[in-house]
Amino acid sequence: MLAEPAGGPFDPKNCPVRDVFSHIGDKWASLILQVLCTQNHRFGELRRAIPDISQAMLTSTLRTLQRDGLVHREVFPTQPPSVEYSLTELGQSLIGPIAGLVFWSVEHHARIQQSRRQYDVDNPPVRKLR
């Protein structure tokens, strides 16, 4: 059982967990945070580090992480202007918990895949009659 949050008993109408997880729990956010935990990166470097993310999704996710105070965006006065992204102190504080989830995922991935295969065998799709 999880401990009660410091703010008092769990309130499902005002759930901070859902609010925060909706941003950091998505696959792109966690990948971006992992890439930024080692060093600052420019947009193109992030794009190359996560090759299957679209430019629009990278832009959107970076904006969300910046809005949440996890990522800092710095514009340099060059021609053309260059932009660099880094983790804020708050973003750095999230790396430990994310690393725990990453390690757990790697350790248990084979078991999860096997469970999915078994579930699919035990629960075949229902065919619709025409």
TrEMBL record:
It holds the Pfam family HxlR. Residues 15-113 form the HTH hxlR-type domain. It comes from the Bacteria. It comes from Rhizobium wuzhouense. SUPFAM superfamilies: Winged helix' DNA-binding domain. InterPro entries: HTH_HxlR (IPR002577), WH-like_DNA-bd_sf (IPR036388), WH_DNA-bd_sf (IPR036390). Keywords: DNA-binding, Transcription, Transcription regulation. This is Transcriptional regulator.
